[in-house]
Amino acid sequence: MFEDLRFPLIAAPMAGGPTTPELVAAVTAAGGFGFLAGGYLSADALSDRIAKTAELTGEPFGVNLFVSGGSAAEADLGGHIERWRAEAERLGVEPGEPLWDDDAYAAKLEVVLARKVPVVSFTFGTPSAEDVERLHANGSKVAVTVTSPAEADRAVAVGADALVVQGFEAGAHRGLFADEPEAEGGGAQYGVLSLLRLVSARTDLPLVATGGLVHGADIAAVLAAGAVAAQLGTAFLRADEAGTQPAHRQALADGGRPTAFTRAFSGRPARSLVNRAVADFSATAPSAYPEINNLTKPIRAAAGKAGDPEIMSLYAGQTYELAGSGPAASIVERLQAEAREAATRLSRLR
After folding, report:
1. What are 199-228's pLDDT values in tens digits?
2. Alpha-carbon dihedral of residues 175, 177, 178, 182, nearest 10 degrees?
3. Burial class of residue 80 in the structure, from the number of CB atoms within 10 Å of its CB (0-12 exposed, 13-18 middle, 19+ buried)
4. In DSSP terms, which residues pair with 35 in a beta bridge?
5. Helices within the chain (DSSP H only)
6. Is the pLDDT of residue 146 over 90?
7. Model confidence, pTM
């Protein structure tokens, strides 16, 4: 699936705007592989983006879907709603309705089936074995994001063709199958190299490593540890083709902010640059996804339009300060050069 790439690099699906058809096409043209982010989109919008990407590149690309299982949260949202309502009033917008939904999973699954997407990846859980069978019968390969060895076992059991092994260093949402409210970060935290080695001891499936990878040496490291490819997201947040909001780009370029896990923006653990919202709202933010995400979405959008980074979800990996900017092709070219240089250093092991 990924073993034949000219360069073993995958552009991660970054939902909420950063991933665009143009970014996927540019990374693909440079020898890598790109994933469209299906999260938060309607089925029609996803279909349109798939069509647009196909127009821009004749090469295969993938689509990522959220598996929003479960039901409405039982946590008390009242205090968190009031905190965000005050921010909404300040920005002159109405908060969203804190309602549960399944991110139109069934409708978007039909879209990827109808469009015959070559690779479909899943985050926040596994598709059912029946859904995997349908995708296989349609000619699609299936990848599942995992954050622990136990999750890897479950993904293998439903028939996944590859696993995206996500370390805690990753930016944005952890791909946790279940958010444990009392656990820091929502559950067990494994670094990408540790998790890669643990999972590779349990399965022979191809493994894609992701989490805090922004340099070519990072790619060389995970390949040496057994991955078939490296998936990078933060490395492309400031690419010319990315849809990252200007205030988010500027915060990344300025650097100096630490990162931390927070449920403040979505009700699920996600790594963000620390801003006022993270500092003030995280301690009392409930485990309530997607209710909190739906509540804060219009407020965060208004903050973006106002250029106010203190109330935006500035999602990024731990090593964001080492990521560059410019055309995606140039970023890939730099990563290739760095990876080759790192590979030469391995000659000391001969």
Report:
1. 999 999 999 999 999 999 999 999 999 999
2. -50
3. buried
4. 62
5. 21-29, 43-56, 78-91, 105-114, 129-137, 149-157, 192-200, 216-224, 246-254, 276-281, 291-306, 328-345
6. yes
7. 0.96
